[in-house]
Amino acid sequence: MPTAGSPSRWQAHALALATALLATLCEHAVVQQSPSIASTPWAAVPLALVCCVLAGPLPGLTLLLGGLALPWLGGALGLAPAPAVGALAAQAVLGGALLALVAHRLRHVQQSVLKAEQSEQQQRQIVEKAGLGLFELDLQHRSLQASPRFAEMLQLPWSPAPQALDAWLALLPGVSARRLREVLDGLATGPSRFFLHELNLSDADGLPYWVLLCGQVSLDIETRHTRVQGAGIDISARKRAEVDLQGAKAALGEQLEDLRRLHELSSRLLAPGTLEEQLEQVLATALEIHHSSAGLISMLDDGRPRIMAQHGFSDMPAAELERLVNGGGICGMAMKERARLMVQDMQSDPRCQPIRALMTGRRLHAAHALPLISDQGELMGAMSLFLQEARLPNARERTAMDMCANKAVLFIERARTRAALQASELRFEAVLEASAVPFVVLSPVRDDSGQLEDFRLDYLNAATVRALKGRREQLVGRPVQDILVGVWQRRPDLLAQCQRALLRNETCEFEFSAPEGGRGLEQHFHCIVSPMGHSLAVWAANVSDRRRHDQQLRDADRRKDEFIATLAHELRNLLAPIRQAAHLSSAPEATEEQKRWGNELIDRQVRHMALLLDDLLDISRIARGALLLRLDRAELSGIINNAVEAVRPLIDAKQHRLLLELPRRPLRFDADALRLSQVVANLLSNAAKYTEPGGEIHLRARAGKGELCIEVSDNGIGMPPASLGDVFHMYTRLGSGDEGKPGGGLGIGLALARGLVDLHGGSITAASDGPGCGSCFTVRIPLLHVSQPGPREPAPASPRPQPARPMHVLIADDNEEAAQSLSALLQMQGHRVSCAYDGEQAVAAFRADPADVCLLDIGMPLQDGKEVARAIRALPGGEHPVLIAITGWGQEADRREAIAAGFDHHLTKPVDPEHVLRLISTAAQQPRSAETSAP
Fold this sequence. Notes:
Layout: H1 9-33, H2 44-55, H3 57-77, H4 84-129, E1 132-138, E2 143-146, H5 148-153, E3 163-164, H6 165-170, H7 174-189, E4 194-202, E5 208-219, E6 226-234, H8 236-269, H9 275-290, E7 294-301, E8 304-311, H10 318-325, H11 330-337, E9 341-343, H12 356-361, E10 366-373, E11 379-387, H13 395-434, E12 439-446, E13 452-460, H14 462-468, H15 472-475, H16 480-483, H17 487-490, H18 492-504, E14 508-516, E15 521-532, E16 535-542, H19 544-586, H20 592-624, E17 632-635, H21 636-653, E18 657-661, E19 668-671, H22 673-689, E20 696-704, E21 707-714, H23 749-759, E22 763-767, E23 775-782, E24 808-812, H24 816-828, E25 832-836, H25 839-848, E26 853-856, H26 865-874, E27 882-887, H27 892-901, E28 905-908, H28 913-925
Parallel strand pairs: 18-20, 24-25, 24-26, 26-27, 27-28
Antiparallel strand pairs: 1-2, 1-6, 2-3, 4-5, 5-6, 7-8, 7-11, 9-10, 10-11, 12-13, 12-16, 14-15, 15-16, 17-19, 20-21, 21-23, 22-23
Helix pairs in contact: 1-2, 1-3, 1-4, 2-3, 2-4, 8-9, 8-13, 9-13, 19-20, 20-23, 21-22, 22-23, 25-26
C-alpha cells in the first residue's frame, strides 16, 4: 500500500512508458546517423531490467513493452532518423531518467528505514508503558545496554551508551549481584538458550520488591560473542501474592492443626474423668496452640476463685499462686472486667505491677486471659496463659482460646450438673431410706407371649425391707408373687390397675388389706402407683393406724354428741326444780316454810350446777396442761371424809351401804387435798350411779411400799372387759341405756379423775369380771414426805363477813337481771349501788360518781371489762377503787389477763354472794392490794 511521498502505481507506469519512448527515439536517431548500427528493439531490454530493479516489475514490464513497440511504431509512422547529436541527447535523457529512477528509489528506501525506526520506537514505548524494561548483554565484552525503564526498575542510573556490566552489578545489593553474576557466568560457558532469573531488591523505604529477568541467549557466528536480549518485569505484586498465599496456606495449616488438636481434645474429654483432669487437658491444648508452657484455669467456688488446673507453676508456693488468681493477678483482672485481657508486656503494663517480679523470675513477658462465662451470663472462672515473648496473641490464638474456654465452660457446667444430679439422687435416696412409708420400683415380668404376668422388685427402701421382714439382697430382683404369695389371685384388680398405669402412663391409687403376721390384726395399705419409664414407682402407706384413729374420732364424736345431749339433760334436771322453787316462792299462798325450802332447793341446785361447770373447766385445764396442783400437807382421813360428805346425798338417795376401810393411824403426806378428794368423790359417785338401789360400795385405803392405794369397788352393773381401756376417755359413759336416767352422768368424771391422778404422778386402773359382776377402780399415789402426826387441832371456822361500812359499788354487766339481782343483794347490806349495762356506760358512771368497789363483767359490748378497768385506772382517783372481775371466763390465762388489766380480784360465775360480801367488807377495812381470788 503506497505511503505519503511515494509515487502511485499509475505514475510509475507513465514514467516507465515515457522513458521507453525516449529510449526508442534516441535509438532511431542513432541508427539514422550511423547506418552501421542496426536498429533493434531489444535495446530497451537493459533499461527495462534497470527499471524493474528501481521501480518494480510492472514499470519495468511497461518499459520493456514500450521499447519493443516504439521502433515498429516509428517505422509505421515514417519517422525520419534523428541526427547524431540527437542520439547523444537521447542517451542523456535515458541516463537522466535512470538517475531519476535511482533517486526516487533511494528516497523510498530512506522513508522505509525511517518508518521502521518509528515503528521500533513505538514498540519500545509500548513495552516501556507495559512495565517492561529492555536490556541487551554482551557477555564477551561485559557490557550492558538498557532501556530507561529497566534502569528505573533496578533503581540504577541510565545512560544511552552501553555500560560496563561489572560496574552495573556493583550497584546492586551484594547477595542479588553475586547470584546474578553466577547465572551470567553460566550462560557464557553453558549451552543455555534461555535466560530466567529473579532479582530480590529493596526500595527506598526498605520494602522488598522483585524483578524477573527473562531473555533469549544468542551466539554471533562471526564474532563468537554471546548476547542476551531480554526484558525485566516487576513481579512484586505476584511475589507478594505468593507470600500472602504461602502465609494463608501456613495459617490454614495451623488452623487445621488447631482443629486437629481440638478434635483430639474432644475425643479425650469423652472418656470419664474428674473435672480437674478434663480442665488439665483443655489447658494443655491451649498452651500447645500458643506455644507456651505456663498457664492456669481457676473456677469460682462459693464466690472465691479456686485453681482447678495449672501448668508451669508446680514449684510455686500456694500463696504466690493464689495471687495469680485473686485481684492482683491476670485471672482476677479478667474476671473483674468480664472481658478478654491481653497484655503485650507485663514489665511495662501498670496493671501487672503486683506480679511483675514473679513473672520476671519465670521469664514470662506476655499474658492472654479469658473469663469463663456461661450462656446465661454466669461468671464461672477464668483461663490465663503466659507467653515468653512480649507479643499480643494473633487471631488464630484468640479463636483457639475462645474454643478452649467454651469447652472449659461446658465441662464445668456438666460437672456441676452431674454433681447436682448426684446430690439430688443422694438426697432422694436418703429421703426414701429415711421415709417410714414403704417405696418400691417394679419392673414388668411377661410370659413367652408377651402378656404381663407379674412384677419384679428392682428397688425397695428400708421401710419396705422392714415391712417384708427380709433382707434387701434377698428381696431385690424377686417377683412380687414369690414374696406376697397369691396376691394377684386374691386381688386380680390390683394387677389390672398396675397394668393400666403402665400402659396409659397415668397414676392410680388403690387400697388393699393384708393380715399382719403374729398379731392377728388386719393391716390396711393405701398405694399410689406412678409410671416411671418402663417401670412403676409404688408408695404403700400403712393406713391401719389412720383407720383406727378415724374410728376413734368417730367414736369420740359420737360420745361428744351423747355428752352434749346428757349435759342438756343434766342442766334441765337442775333447772327444773329451780324454776319450780322460784314459782313456789313467788306464790302468794306459799307459807314461809315452803318459801325457805324453795330457796334452799335453789341454792343447792345452783351449787350442783357450779360443780358441774367446775368439772368441765378442770378437764379442759388438764387437757391443755394448765391445771396446777396446790401441794400442801394433807391428811388421808380428811380427804376421804370430804369425798364421802360430797357424795353422801346420792348414796343415801339410792340406799347404798358404804363400807370404809382406812388405816388406823393418821397418815399425812404432801398432796393437793382438794383434788384428791375430788378424785375419790368422782369414783364414789360413779359407783353410786351404776349400782342398783340397795347395793354395796367398798372404799379401802392403805399405804405401803412408798405409795397410797385407794380402791373403790361395787356390786353394780359391771363392764365388758373390752371397755376397760375406754372408761377413762372423755364423754365415755358406762352403759348405753342410761342416757335418760337421772344421775347417769356426763362421762367426764373418770377422765377428770385420771387427769388429777396423773398430775400427782400416780395411776388409776379399772377392773371388772364382766356385765353384772361389779367394778373396781384402784388409785395409786406416790407418798411424798409421809409423817405420822400427833393430835390434830380443830381447824378454825371460816369467818363470817363482818358488817362493813356502807360503800359505793358500781356493777357493770350486760346481763341486766344478773346486775339487778346482785344490786338488790348489796342494797340489802346497806351499800349504795350504781348499775351500767355496757362498757361505755360503766366508764361514764364512774367518771360522774366515782365508786369504792367496781364489779365488772368481762364480756360486755362497746368496751369489755378489761378496757373499762384500764380506763378507770387512767382517770383521776382511779387508783383507789377495788376492781373485781365477775366473768364466765375462768381459765388461768383469763385470770392473768384480768390482773394485768388492773383488776384486784377475779371471780368466776356463778359467784358466791358470801365471797363478794367478804371482799367488799375487806375493801372497807383495808387498803387495796392486788391478789388472786379463789376459783
